[in-house]
Amino acid sequence: MATALMTEIADAPAVRLTSLAHGGGCGCKLAPSVLQQLLADQVEVNPFRHLLVGTETGDDAAVWQLDEDTCVIATTDFFMPMVDDPYDFGRIAATNAISDVYAMGGRPIMALAILGMPLDKISTDMVRRILQGGKAVCATAGIPVAGGHSIDSPEPIYGLAVVGTCRPKDVRRNSGAKPGDALILTKALGVGIYSAAIKKEALSESGYAELIASTTLLNRIGSELAQDPNVHAITDVTGFGLLGHALEMARGSGCALVIRESDVPLFSEAASLACDGYVTGASRRNWASYGEAVMLPPDMLEWRRHLLTDPQTSGGLLIACERVGATALVEKIIADGYPSARLVGHVELGLSSITVQ
Predict the structure, then answer these.
(1) Are 304 and 268 in contact (CB under 8 A)?
(2) Do the bridges between strand 157-166 and strand 107-117 make them parallel or antiparallel, or are there none, so unpaired?
(3) Which of the 8 DSSP states describes residue 84?
(4) Rounded to two decimals, what is the model's pTM?
């Protein structure tokens, strides 16, 4: 990465990173309805036969087949801080970016850093800590940060462009779910709710530790699951919330998904904080974008709905797999280091929609 930005950043007193951003984490993503408008005039027919996955299904990354044995997976993800600790911000952003490769069934091979910093508001040391956090996660994933690009920006931004590889038969789209499949979620929900509480200094120390443990846990289990022929579809749950990413799976697969609310894993303080009003604007934008395709129980309170539309940053994987053996697969995922993994629903024949039970 060019060093010019680092030498130009003026030493400044420590500030809360979240105070410099109008939003944080994957809650910064454009609403699904806005993305649909932006991509509405894109040509759907793919003239590149080696492009196995592009923009047609809103998948997690692009996939290009090099030869009969190798595919290249490419993705980028960056956002503004959702926590105040710069090292933790770097770790979360890097974990989140690498997740897209795992969600496609691949293994990352290298990353490039994306950095934008307000030169007059943040110290050199804080920026170094952000970069160190990202590099530490990449080291855990076994990949280098091989370069990058930096700019002067009005709000702090950090993320990665990540390249990975996989075998063609191991590519897992979000559009492969089949009627009768079981649905598995590998991480608990509540990241956006916790980040809203952080903004108002209302999150407990134990809650913060829970947040960091989840958002810095690499979704590397995805590359292993992709080698299982009984696993039909995978996507990671990020800024559109569980319902939004489940709906993308339903639409891509031409099926209806059923989510059992009582089985969805939650952070320990997520329900109480949501009930007290600690929700993000992104959660409301999410519901406004796709709520017409979701059937909720008639007695569902708004704060409970916010748990399902809550924007996740570095969230878990949503997996569609054969119903037979699904319980054993959950037990394996838990044993591999994802203690919150749960069976959360199933796939049915029907119009592309979500039903919450």
Answers:
(1) no
(2) antiparallel
(3) S
(4) 0.90
Lowest mean pLDDT segment, chosen from 23-32, 212-221, 318-327 = 23-32
Residue 299 phi/psi, 5° resolution? -100, 10
Helix H or strand E encompassing 273:
helix 270-275
Strand-pairing partners, residue 65, are 71
Which residues are tagged catalytic? 26
Residue 14 one-letter amino acid: A
Q: What is the pLDDT of residues 334-354, one digit of tens each?
A: 999 999 999 999 999 999 999
What are the C-alpha distances in Å from 153 to residues 21, 150, 157, 161, 264? Answer: 11, 9, 8, 18, 38
DSSP 165-207: EE-GGG---SS---TT-EEEE-S-B-HHHHHHHHHTT---HHH
**Angle separating helix axes 241-253 and 302-309, nearest 10 degrees:** 60
State pLDDT tens for residues 278-308.
Answer: 999 999 999 998 999 999 999 999 999 999 9
Residue with tokens 């749950």: 237
Residue of 213, 207, 176, 174 lying closest to 193 (CA atoms): 207
Distance set, CA 328 to CA 145, 221, 331 (Å): 36, 15, 5
